[in-house]
Amino acid sequence: MAGHSKWAQIKHKKKAVDAKRGQLFTKLARAIQVAAREGGGDPDGNPALAHAIQKAKEARMPKENIERAIARGVGAEAGAEAIEKVVYEGYGPGGVAILVEALTDNRNRTGGEIRHLFTRHGGSMGEPGSVAWVFEKKGEIVVDARRYDEDALFAAIDAGAEDISRDGDLWEIVTDPADFAAVRDALAASGVEVESAEIVMRPTSRTPVAREDAGRLLKLLEALEDHDDVEAVHANFDMDAELLEQAAGV
Length: 250
Prior knowledge:
- The chain is α+β, with helices and mostly antiparallel strands.
- It is 43% helix and 24% strand.
- It has helices at 4-18, 23-39, 47-58, 63-73, 107-120, 154-158, 180-189, 211-226, 241-248; strands spanning 84-91, 97-104, 124-125, 135-144, 163-167, 170-175, 194-203, 207-208, 230-235, 237-238.
- Strands 3-1-2-9 form a 4-stranded antiparallel β-sheet.
- A hairpin with a 2-residue loop joins strand 5 and strand 6.
- The longest helix has 17 residues, at 23-39.
- It starts with a helix and ends with a helix.
- The relative contact order is 0.18.
């Protein structure tokens, strides 16, 4: 799992900067809208909506924006766009499996643009099902190991965490999606500040990345992340955390 927690930390910090551009707010609003449409507008009975709202709050999205997105999702506001979830699959430099989750009102346009990004950055788009089998849905919480020792994470175990492991200077806590919110909230209640907390498609096997492929791979992943319609990008790379930081320019 080398480097994955560091990548989650880097992405989380970059999203805080992205929020200033407004792009992140648009993506978060779409996620809220789709979650509300599929599971109803009450976050207490809709875990996907509750998670989307939590991410929006962490990004300091205005309350009225959140409420408007929920209203669009449940059909209470006229002119709501017909946004749908689409998953794209492919391979990056070095044969790394990549899963791209998107929210779009035009799957043909988005599909063409995602294919172009794969090709432009040394990857290739795959057929549906070509890499999805490598991933499983999990909750993933990252905590700074320089600030907290393992004893500080007992609250996560008590709340149902499946696994806690150390990846360099970070702790990685894995949960079942159903227990994710409880584990995250238990850590917060015990005074532990998290670096990132996401529902992710976690790889069950990983592909080592050579130094010469590292930069190209991260450029592809970042280009996919930056696409307006992309909600999340998942990859099964195995990379030394130091190499990852160098390639990411942090």
